[in-house]
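Protocol step 4 of 6: structure prediction from sequence.
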Amino acid sequence: MSEMGRPPKHAPGGAEPDLEPDLELARAVAVEAAEAAGAMLRECSRGEFAIAAKGAAGDLATVLDLEAETIIHERLRAAFPHHRIRGEEFGASGPAGRWEWVVDPLDGTNNIAIGMPNYVVGIALCADRHPTVGVVHDPVTERTWSALRGGGMHGPHGGQASRAREHNCDPGLTVAWTQGHRVGRHNLAARALKYVLDGVALRVLPLWAPLVSWSMIARGDIDGFLGYQAEDIDLPAGYLLAVESGVTVLTLDGEVFDGRTGPTPCSFVAARPEHLGTLLSIVEAAAKLAPELPAIRIPDPPR
């Protein structure tokens, strides 16, 4: 691995910050960066690596997260020196402007930390906070999905991606669930949503890697995705894949969710039209149930 440290600051040269870049070039650069980071993750995750707590909310960071973000940052900065880059590990660098890259170098750190190979790399380019280019790379299977706003989702072999499978023989719903790291076990709304979801869906997938869930619903592997107060770092790339593959994304109130990034945690339901009604009914039932849930009492550990 290279020596770890904060990525280099904004370098001079290139296009003006607010001019629209070549979006096909942006996608190609993001794909190459994600796959380069993925190759490192695939190789280095087989050995031992340091793991540390990140904050007090249960999130983790590893040396792999840092190395992957450095790989991505160097490539993005070389190609787009005037763009702002915001990564999960190193924060933001570069001038403020219309164009911002949002980087999740290893979505699924909690999984890889326990030896479960369920993680991806996510990169998005946002214009005025709206996702415009999205890339998700799976290092384990060496597959990459990408999308341009208005241009559809493209799969690992180029061309338009199609649904992975149809559910003609399976009447039960498979729904992914995610919640923000700051959502505690005592949050009544989250508890109610999970309770009702578990009672309605045939399978509930709490993957702890939202970009994995976004790519699964974009491909048609699952029927829905429900998020509660999720962070935005792993939102824009997956959101764009989903909407460009025909998935509808709404707020919990049933309004259109536009995928804009920002500091406020976001809650959403994502599904194809035939399943939206069911997911919204889950949200409605959970809202009625939440005030009735008993408090969770966890006994003190023995002294």
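Step 5 (inspection) to follow. The chain has a mean pLDDT of 88.
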